[in-house]
Amino acid sequence: VQLQASGGGLVQAGDSLRLSCAASERSASVQVMGWFRQAPGKEREFVAARTWDDNWIYIADSVRGRFYISGDNAKNIVFLQMNSLKTEDTAVYYCAGRPLGPDSTSIATYRNWGQGTQVTVSS
Asked: Distance between CA atoms of 88 and 71, rounded to whole angstroms?
């Protein structure tokens, strides 16, 4: 399964941005779709994830209330809506997919990864 992330850019603090992740297919290997981010000098961290049927959605504490994950199942696209962006949200954002199962916030459980998209938030 190919995953293509897009939508990054340079914005100011307080702005909003929507990232998209297009999956080449919605197979069993990507029943859970997640977003992760990696800031310079830091480890990659979980941001948000959902199942395609929205039966399960989870948002990291660090962004809850500002970031939202959703999808367009007809187009096999998952979105990450990012509002009230802060400078500390600056990172490369990655989308990834995995089969259904436990520990869906764990990076190690994701096998399909898209390329990253850079999000830079200026003050």
From this structure: 25
Give pLDDT tens digits for 56-103: 999 999 999 999 999 999 999 999 999 999 999 999 999 999 999 999
Q: How many residues does the chain have?
A: 123
Question: What is the DSSP code (8-state) at residue 64?
Answer: B
Cα 82 to Cα 23: distance, rounded to the nearest angstrom: 20
CA proximity to 1, closest of 76, 87, 107, 91: 76
SS3 51: strand
CA distance 119 to 123: 13
